Amino acid sequence: MLALLLSPPAGRAQNPYPQNTYPSQFRQPIRSYGPAQSGLQSRSNRITIGPSIPIALQSADDLIIGEPDSARRRQYVQQRVRSVVKVRLDGRGQVQDTLEYQAFNEQGRATEAGTSPGRIRRQWSYNAQGHCTALVVLPATSQPYTFITSYHPGLRRGQQEVLQPNGTRTVVGERQLYQHADTLLTEAVGHNLLVGNHQYLDYYQRSLRLQPHPDTVLCLTGFYDQNKQLTGSRVDYLLYQAGQLTESGRLDLGQAAKAQPEAGGAAGTVVPLLSSHQALLALRRGSGRLEVRRSHYDARRRLIKQENLPQAGTSREVLNTYNSLDQLIGQQLVTSGISSPTRSAFTVYSYSPTGLLLGETTNARSSKPVFYRYLYQYYR
């Protein structure tokens, strides 16, 4: 069945967002549809929550991220770190308040996170194989309800639920993942629910994440109406060099389609459609290529510069400095905008003899330096 997804185009562009390659696993009816939206948007103090684009998923088991990066996780396992607390220090070096708290299991995977041990905001659960199966986000001022994301690795199926203070539990999102080699198809359904000022949307989308070349990842997403007819599409991409991510962004489908006369649209619509082959060709030619982030590395494969390209007139650049042990010891953040002056902020890091992050000094949030300390507890 994956062959149907990956077959090359013949003549007019084939629909790369097929409805029938896999039968839908969802049976709950979808009540209504609005325009395809992604991420969070605020309208009249209402936060609208729509579908996300799963290009970051490396495999079906990455649906919930519940652990630090691999290097830090290995370090925590080796040194048997149980928890980390980040505290702010006053001018005399005394603890002023607690800002962050994280707890880890003996495999180095996060189990709890919050502002302090008594104020937990997130909790993760794992199965016997170490796969993350649930993430619970507890209520806060900005979100006055519990949000539960669960995932069954065996079925490759997940869902998102809202648990309100009155005990009502409602499914607001479902995902079914299908994987073959490095190709991942994600089917997502959303269900309408208004909780306070959070509006969850009805939606249906399918995203095909594939790797047509060792240095390229494409994610082709289709948005559908209540009859599962294509109403919108989107192509996101990741570019790598020697296994390191160097660029991410998306394609302007209108511009990319104009550069390829053979590209078409869904029957009876004006939705631009590109096959994976045409999307790759447009990416290589630079047709409609909208870069979002660029990353640069040195000869030792260390990230030395990351550029977040202008979004809404604002750009962001991060410059990293390392010591001979490859530890990050300095970071400069440069932000600039059309209507605001360029601003630079600096952060300096220090480490314990065992290599754990120990201190942080920064002026990122104020004109005067602020001092932080990291405190650790260990498994015996």
UniProtKB/TrEMBL annotation:
Positions with biased composition (Polar residues): 16-26
Domain of life, per lineage: Bacteria
Region (Disordered): 1-26
Protein name, UniProt field: Uncharacterized protein
